Amino acid sequence: MDTLFTKIINREIPAKIIYEDDQILAFHDIAPQAPVHFLVIPKKPVRTLNDLTEDDRALAGHMLFTAQRLANELGCEQGFRVVMNCNELGGQTVYHIHMHVLGQRQMHWPPG
Ligand code: 5GP
After folding, report:
1. What's the distance, CA 6 to chain centroid?
2. H-helix or E-strand spanning residue 72
3. What is the CATH number of the domain that holds 21?
4. pLDDT by residue (tens digit) across 87-110?
5. Catalytic residue list contains 28
6. Total count of domains within the chain
7. In a domain, 55, yes or no
């Protein structure tokens, strides 16, 4: 059931880690879609956004505020985008919940 993100948490595969604490990990995406593109994940393996529960409120908030802080520390003061893909139609490919944070280029709407 482990995804490759569990392997990154456990240091079984390498990643460029930006931030870690007891609850979450942030690391650069291996295939960046913007000059800044990192992922924020919980250490707890939640499969999709649909699998978050009321008990995860504080965890979800912590992920969001960490995304905000790191985006600004990595030079995205002028703006950035946070994306969470949910399930197949949402474009999710790794079934361990994650926030994408993208910045340092102009974002467009609608997304693809
Ligand atoms: P999703 O498509 O599930 O929303 O996003 C998964 C993301 O994980 C993709 O942007 C993909 O590039 C990234 N990714 C996949 N495998 C690896 C890996 O081994 N290391 C890192 N750092 N990112 C990965």
Report:
1. 13
2. helix 57-73
3. 3.30.428.10
4. 999 999 999 999 999 999 999 999
5. no
6. 1
7. yes
In a domain, residue 56? The reply is: yes
Each residue's pLDDT tens digit, 5-51: 999 999 999 999 999 999 999 999 999 999 999 999 999 999 999 99
Residues with CB under 6 A from ligand 1: 4, 13, 15, 27, 29-31, 85, 91-94
Contact 79, 62 (CB under 8 A): no
Any domain includes 112: no
Length of the chain: 112
Going by alpha carbons, the residue nearest to atom 21 of ligand 1 is: 30
In this predicted structure, the answer to whether residue 76 has a pLDDT above a threshold of 90 is: yes
Record the pTM. Answer: 0.98
Question: Does residue 21 lie in a domain region?
Answer: yes
**How far apart (Å, rounded) are the C-alpha atoms in residues 36 and 18?**
12
Task: Count CB neighbours of 26 within 10 A.
Answer: 24
Q: Which of 28, 37, 96, 98 is catalytic?
A: 98
User: What is the extent of the structural domain holding 60?
Assistant: 4-103
